[in-house]
Design goal:
Blueprint: E1 2-7, E2 13-17, E3 23-27, E4 38-44, E5 49-51, E6 60-64, H1 68-73, E7 83-87, E8 92-93, E9 99-101, E10 108-110, E11 112-118, H2 127-130, E12 134-141, H3 146-151, H4 156-159, E13 165-172, E14 181-186, E15 189-195, H5 203-211, E16 221-223, E17 231-233, E18 238-243, E19 247-255
Parallel strand pairs: 6-16, 8-13, 9-19
Antiparallel strand pairs: 1-2, 1-5, 1-13, 2-3, 3-4, 6-7, 10-17, 11-12, 11-16, 12-13, 14-15, 14-18, 18-19
């Protein structure tokens, strides 16, 4: 099952996209916080604007260097423990919304990622319990101001600026993400083409580890790392990201 958060010009709503359908079955309320129930209304996918599937009420947790080849291209080894960083919920933006390069940067890097959406509070959960706390999965682009990330003591300016976390286009609830493709394109040219089976630490281990540090709350997002092939995108270019089984979306890069 895939769920969309969308608007037709009014308040955001949620809908189910059934396999093979071009219509959304409209839901009552937010399925993250109430049982999935339909209103009986259907709207054409072509008639809606898709939004980020979830806006975290608390946080986005990023995981660095979780693909060995990406760590190597960054000139680093695979860390003994996951490297974590935070993005605020103001970094989250939707599919087709612009990525705004911050004033202190000339370009940003794309990082296509599988994103985990938390369903219920988790603290010190085991890897065996972890998936019981996962609502579903979406696609994210962990947009990074690389020069700031490298020059600063912390990664805040590099990772946490507004629009640095586009997500979409859908939220997949019942997907086996142990071996799915993760890809990125810039102006139609394939730049990243990895698989989640290449992750150093899989979803259960990551959720368990993160829960030992932060209390995870419903709607929190965990970015699971990016495969090799990251690189710059500049104002005027378009970057697209995809996770197999969830969907593909793109954002134009702008400078304001």
């Amino acid at each position: 099952m895939r769920i969309a958060r969308f608007t037709t010009g009014d308040s955001p709503r949620y809908g189910i996209l059934e396999d093979g359908s071009t219509d959304l079955v409209v839901l009552k309320g937010d399925p993250l916080f109430m049982p999935v129930a339909t209103t009986g209304e259907r709207v054409a996918l072509d008639d809606v604007r898709l939004l980020s599937p979830v806006i975290p009420r608390s946080k986005v947790v990023g995981v660095g260097r979780n693909y060995a080849e990406h760590a190597a291209e960054m000139g680093s080894d695979v860390p003994d423990e996951p490297i974590l960083f935070l993005k605020p919920n103001t970094s989250v933006t939707g599919p087709d919304d612009p990525i705004v390069v911050p004033g202190y940067a000339q370009e940003v890097d794309h990082e296509a990622e599988l994103a985990v959406v938390v369903s219920r509070m988790a603290k010190n959960v085991s890897a065996e319990q972890a998936l019981d706390h996962v609502f579903g999965y979406t696609v994210a682009n962990d947009v990074t101001a690389r020069a700031a990330q490298r020059s600063d003591t912390t990664w805040t300016r590099g990772k946490a600026f507004d629009t640095s976390c586009p997500t979409g286009p859908f939220l997949a609830l019942d997907l086996d993400v142990s071996d799915v493709a993760v890809r990125a394109w810039v102006d139609g040219e394939l730049r990243q083409d990895g698989r989640t089976s290449q992750m150093v630490r899989g979803v259960p281990e990551l959720v368990a580890y993160v829960s030992t540090i932060f209390t995870l709350l419903p709607g929190d997002i965990i970015l699971t790392g990016t495969p090799a092939g990251v690189g710059p995108v500049r104002p005027g270019q378009r970057v697209e990201v995809e996770v197999e089984g969830i969907g593909r979306f793109g954002n134009n890069v702008v400078k304001r």
